[in-house]
Amino acid sequence: MPRVGVDTDIDVRLIQSTPGRGLVQVVGSSHLESIIVMGAGSTGAAIAHDLALRGYLVTLVERGEIASGTTGRNHALLHSGGRYAVKDPEAAQECMRENQILRRICPGVIEQVGGLFVAIDEEDEAYLVSFLVGCAESGIPTEVIGREEALRLEPELNPAVRLAVKVPDGVFDPFRLVASFVATAQANGVRVLPFCRVVGFVQDGRGVSGVRVVSDIRGSAMELKADLVINATGPWGGKVAEMAGARVPVMPSAGVMVALDRRLSRRVVNRLRKPGDGDIIVPQRATSLIGTTSWTVDELEPVPVPRDHIIRMVEEGARLIPAARHTPIKASFSSARPLISGNLESDGREVSRGFQTFDHGARDGIPGLVSVSGGKTTTSRAMAEHVGNLIGRLTGRDIPCRTAEVPLAPYYQYRLLGGLPEARREAVAP
Amino acid sequence: MTKQAWKPGAPALETLSFTVRLRRGGPWRPLRHRWQNFAVTVPADYTVVELLESIKGHQDPSLAFRHSCHHGSCGTCAMKVNGLERLTCVTTVADVVKEGGHLEVEPLGHLPWVSDLVADAAPLFDNLEALGPGHVRMNGIFAGCIECGACISACPIGGPRSGYVGPAPLAAARDALVTGQAPGLGWGLLLERVDGNHGVWQCHTAFECSRACPADVDPAGAIIQLRQLLASGQAKSLAGLAMSRGSAAIGAPAAGPAPAGGAPHDHRPRREGGEGW
Questions:
Q1: What global pTM score does this model have?
Q2: Interface pTM (ipTM) of the complex?
Q3: Between A111, A335, A428, which is nearest B159 by CB?
């Protein structure tokens, strides 16, 4: 069995306690640099896991429960890359590669159901050739099937279906995927602090040497010191970076999803056309998720759920599977994607689904702070590898990434209170 | 209980103004516990979790509560709403409060209290892992259980501190026996726990767990079935059969906690149909 342990002696010391001013904690390291990761969505959790495997001393801070922002509310689609095969072959290739890796390292949180791209009208049919070429160029295996076979596989499909293409899409459980990353990180010595809000940075001059946080479990403020701080706060990334005087051009782009109260299909069903609103139904657990729309938002708490978007999702979904119109809605919800953009006029759909890292030392003259934004949960491991390599360059170390090989711990080994002392863990609410 | 979409032609949904009473504090906080009131005006189709998000975003950023998927499948957001366990992401405020009324939200009972509205589900996870059908926890998770903890909170026997195995873990044990898929503890210990002092015989058949379950698992029904299986000796035969088929090896009890990186039985792929590309 691959070894997950690291060689460093993890030494998180409580240096001093200053009554009235909160705790001052120094995250000390016996071997490698100490690094604070802000945000425990799929990006931050994967980064904490990656850096722990490389031997860094990592603290992961999250303002709420893990996966309580964008990741938790995502579409749960383990991309095959088919959705990007025509317009963004690079993203498509990366999806396919990461799809295979995640199936290997955490199969337990993935429903390996496969996916279909279905052609409903002539226009869809005309898209087939460019779709197949795109998939072939991106290394995505496909199989074209006729109408009868499509309806045999998915009896509730729109009977007008002309043909369908099978692709290796899958479905993951977003919360449990993140919990797997975090559980593995915890097992490797990462200190995970949920319900811990970053309220500012510790700065020497302009350089960042730690974060100021308020723990909503302890009800007190703390200073956490570290050699490097990574901002993986998704759509909040711009506001968080601003506290240090840095700029991250993140554009929160919301999407509405509608969860119907049963599984309408066994597989993921996509419309065979250029990606657009409501062109995909993902069967997840006992629901079917129709998504999604895309518009830029400022309000993140809660992200608004416009009613006309809900109606549009159900109508578009019914073009793929007519029963969508008559199935009770279990929930409708919005999440905000952290899209990177230089052009804030766009609606978000055309902006790159790729990710970007920002070394604020080089960009803004603020050493010690790195931001990462954009990306998809399917490619979170790759994002983390990229960030890990950047951290390697910044710390002058050349430690290979191991996350593609090391299996993740089961999600139920994640411990919410892992970062807290034993005492008082048994108290029950009055 | 489910969130209804506004339909074309229906009158516009109203807003509701009411008082939210929240349990605040926690065992690590200087102020151990208190109730705090918030006056709110929100759209009537807001879910309770959206209401909490809005309080956190606009009134008190220190409010702690768990939430993730917002569509009733991750199981993180179960809380007590007006004294009853609810999955707050699929409960609209219109379901639980009237104009000018009071809405009370508390963390789940019987589980370790973390802070404000947060209870720690770890003891539930441990018992599910011990008694559930091994990897099936993830393989569609037994009978659709979303591991929210509502049944533990609702059960009049008490939580893990009382020693009682608990409704969802007993339902998981029933599924392990019926499907023949080995539990984390192994068959011998499963029978011992389920048939022991803190197993199925401790249940008072109050049926609160089945009432509270947002995923229709019906743990009380499972407990009754387990009693029948135990009393008739069939439980032993089922376990013996499963063992003789060799499935015990799959979920053989690990020595100590499973190592990070996962034992093989934790990593079987989840299949719910499809060809498993």
A1: 0.89
A2: 0.90
A3: A428
